[in-house]
Amino acid sequence: MDCSPLVIDNSYHVVKEDVLAEWVAQLLLGNSLHIARVIECLDSRAVAMKDKAIDCIIKKLNTVGVYKRDGWLFQMISWIALKIKLHEDNGSGKVFMNAPHSAPAQHGIDGFALVIDDEKMIKHIVLCEDKCSENARSIITSQIYPEFEAFENSEFDNRVLAEVSSIIRSEDFLINIQDDIVDNKYWMYRIGVTRQSEHDDEAGRKALYKDYDKKVGGAVKRRCAASVNLDDVRKWMEEFSQKVIKVLESKKSKDV
To answer: 205: Cβ–Cβ under 8 A, 6 or more apart, which residues?
Structure first.
């Protein structure tokens, strides 16, 4: 939904929950490269994890608490939505993304992507904040906007440089682009949220992202969002978490 000059919201909806549960389970196990290749329609296989490792993930989902659990699962979903969008827009070989967090409530950038152009220079860097909430507007104003303002004020330039350095495997490539990494003219921001029904239309979207342009200046392409309406978000996430756990259980060794 193009709400220029305020924001462009790349909203999405879940079509096949069983497929999504499979992909999220693999991300929880650390198989982000596998899922990235699946989205790019490339040959791939997931790393088979030990039963103990699988049990550890299941235990976290069952004991961490609803809000942290839902936030962790939503970050996986938002990562998938971003990967699909960037792949559709740019094609294979031009998108480099960080792996999703390996634990609930982990500190750091929720989602991070580097997109390069045909000359192998920076096209843009995407900085993401993902929040699963029953009140998206409140979360945006109290938690996401302050974080984006800090990035804009160069408080986290070192984080951006560190993230790029961690996802680029070629030293020559990294050296070639390193001076542009902390130039925020290349930075795009992405708000990932579970929106409510009152935000479904254009007027609702503008209310949801009000003042985005005051926190992140410049052209509208710098202000992105990715929202999904899950109706009763806590009920949906509870049911989805059980599907993910079922998938995880199926990954265990069948040996007695």
So the answer is: 1, 3, 7, 9, 199, 227
The alpha helices in 188-232, defined as continuous H runs, are 202-208, 212-215
pTM, entire model: 0.94
Three-state secondary structure call for residue 214: helix
Per-residue pLDDT band for 255 (boundaries 50, 70, 90) equals: low
Nearest to 80 by CA among 153, 16, 156: 16
Under 8 Å between Cβ of 156 and 150? yes
* Structure tokens given for 135: 């009140």
Please name the helix (run of DSSP H) or strand (run of DSSP E) that holds residue 56, with its range, or none: helix 51-63
Sign of CA dihedral 82, 84, 86, 92: positive
* Chain length of the chain: 256
Is residue 6 a contact partner of residue 209, using CB atoms and an 8 Å limit?
yes
List all residues 6 or more positions away from 225 whose beta carbon is below 8 Å from its beta carbon: 7, 8, 9, 10, 190, 191, 192, 193, 209
Contact 205, 9 (CB under 8 A): yes
DSSP class per residue in 106-173: --S-SEEEEEE-TTSSEEEEEEEEEE--S-HHHHIIIIIHHHHHHHHTTTTHHHHHHHHHHH---HHH
Q: What are 223's two structure tokens?
A: 């202000």
pLDDT digit string, tens, across residues 35-46: 999 999 999 999
